[in-house]
């Protein structure tokens, strides 16, 4: 019997020693995982302010001071990102209490830090673009009794979310009768009990191509669907046809000189005028919820030129226009054209010191010609510079960050384009413009393709898993103890 007792005692001791390392300290010391990338829009364009990391084991704490994030980007040196915060989260990046297999890292962004775009004649998604997420040297993640000295996160992100940009549908395609192929993005407001206005946005010169995400994200076009602007417009549709090249193709020639960009007009309309009108009309005709008495058109730079060209060519179709830093040469606005636009609602925005499209060649004389024609509904916003108004970004001098003086669209998307002589804000004014639309005789070649986008949301997985193995181990120990006591009593 004594041998049996010794055997049972040894068994209990060995079993306890065997399971102790498993629950005292994690034997692997490694957290493996993946990450998803969050992209958001800012005054200067896009940036990556956040990543959501998914690891293979639940943790209850994460410290930003032990983490390191390095950005790798096409045609750029690797750059260590500044970590603002790190916290346990769900799979959507929302903070949670308790254990989770997800944690989120908030990253600093600025006009010079964190953009996943690269400019190569047009803006493009940088390729490659990825983040290397690891632990700093000699740092560990200490989570209760678990210690991890290695964070092994795959550098290839599993998904890329666009924050506000995901509210757009980017699947639109249209082929005009002349063979021009358009890609376009659309935003549809929530269904209500009335027809809704439409805002047509024409991209700038850097946002052309065949990926309409660029046309929306290259400038802060998501500003058009912000709650503030949508409230002013009474919930409006937004239609963003992307120019395959430049809207000003056929209109003139650009030349880069030591003194800046030089433009020589050919005094002929853009090659895209008719095909663009077909594309716009096809979209409008496919949606009977659009109020055709409230179709507004606007654009910046190249798109600012095209805005003027479209309202000259199809004045009766649009209810109002808001060209920004327009590239429309004032010499091409004849007295007859000025009279044609005399009663047409126009809100023109430009910077007095625009360093790309000289206001003395474009915006100023254009406005003067319209005023000379006694324009009845002309409004102008012309700031001296373009600077940060959020209070978040400063230059080296400590003053608000100065953007390119060409980027006056920043004020428009922020709802800050206010007429020089009054307190009239652009979108408040725009919402009051309405007219009887006369349909143009434009033949539509093909039906618009604009599929409904759906978003699949996966249920959040949080909470504790029952440590069944631990309970079974304790049960085994208790059983052995019981046998010992019973055996002793028997003796």
Automatic annotation (TrEMBL):
Annotated Esterase Ig-like N-terminal domain residues: 35-130
Signal peptide span: 1-24
Sorted UniProt keywords: Hydrolase, Signal
Domain spans labelled Peptidase S9 prolyl oligopeptidase catalytic: 271-323
Gene3D superfamilies attached to this UniProt entry: 2.60.40.2180, alpha/beta hydrolase (3.40.50.1820)
Annotated protein name in UniProt: Uncharacterized protein
Any one biological process term the GO annotation gives: proteolysis
Xref: Pfam families: EstA_Ig_like, Peptidase_S9
A single MF term (Gene Ontology): serine-type peptidase activity
Keyword hit for Transmembrane helix: no
Coiled coil: none
């Amino acid at each position: 019997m004594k041998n049996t007792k010794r055997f049972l005692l040894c068994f209990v001791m060995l079993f306890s020693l065997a399971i102790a390392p498993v629950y005292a300290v994690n034997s692997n010391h490694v957290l493996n995982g993946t990450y998803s990338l969050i992209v958001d829009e800012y005054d200067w364009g896009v940036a990556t302010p956040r990543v959501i990391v998914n690891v293979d084991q639940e943790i209850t704490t994460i410290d930003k001071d032990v983490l390191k994030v390095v950005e790798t980007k096409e045609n750029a040196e690797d750059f260590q990102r500044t970590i603002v915060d790190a916290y346990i989260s769900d799979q959507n990046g929302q903070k949670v209490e308790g254990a989770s297999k997800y944690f989120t890292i908030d990253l600093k962004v600025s006009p010079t830090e964190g953009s996943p775009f690269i400019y190569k004649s047009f803006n493009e998604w940088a390729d490659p673009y990825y983040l290397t997420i690891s632990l700093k040297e000699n740092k560990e993640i200490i989570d209760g009794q678990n210690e991890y000295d290695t964070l092994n996160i795959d550098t290839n992100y599993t998904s890329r979310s666009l924050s506000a940009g995901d509210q757009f549908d980017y699947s639109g395609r249209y082929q005009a009768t002349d063979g021009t192929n358009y890609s376009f993005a659309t935003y549809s407001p929530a269904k209500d009990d009335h027809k809704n206005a439409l805002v047509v946005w024409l991209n700038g010169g850097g946002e052309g191509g065949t990926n309409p995400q660029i046309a929306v994200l290259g400038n802060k076009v998501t500003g058009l669907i912000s709650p503030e602007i949508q409230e002013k417009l009474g919930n409006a549709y937004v239609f963003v046809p992307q120019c395959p090249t430049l809207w000003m193709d056929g209109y003139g020639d650009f030349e880069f000189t030591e003194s800046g960009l030089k433009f020589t007009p050919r005094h002929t309309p853009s090659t895209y005028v008719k095909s663009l009108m077909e594309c716009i009309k096809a979209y409008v005709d496919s949606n009977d919820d659009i109020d055709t008495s409230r179709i507004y058109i606007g654009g910046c730079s190249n798109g600012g030129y095209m805005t003027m060209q479209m309202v000259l060519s199809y004045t009766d179709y649009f209810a109002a226009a808001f060209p920004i830093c327009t590239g429309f040469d004032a010499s091409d606005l004849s007295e007859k054209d000025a009279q044609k636009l005399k009663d047409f609602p126009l809100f023109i925005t430009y910077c007095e010191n625009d360093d790309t499209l000289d206001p003395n060649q474009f915006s100023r004389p254009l406005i003067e010609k319209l005023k000379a024609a006694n324009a009845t509904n002309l409004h102008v916003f012309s700031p001296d510079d373009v600077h940060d108004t959020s209070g978040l970004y400063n230059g080296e001098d400590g003053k608000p960050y100065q953007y390119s003086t060409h980027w006056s669209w920043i004020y428009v998307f922020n709802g800050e384009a206010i007429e020089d002589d009054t307190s009239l804000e652009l979108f408040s004014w725009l919402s009051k413009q309405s007219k009887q639309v006369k349909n143009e005789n434009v033949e539509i070649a093909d039906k618009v393709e604009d599929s409904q986008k759906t978003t699949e949301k996966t249920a959040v997985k949080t909470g504790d898993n029952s440590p069944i193995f631990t309970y079974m181990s304790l049960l085994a120990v208790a059983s052995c103890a019981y046998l010992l006591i019973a055996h002793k009593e028997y003796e």
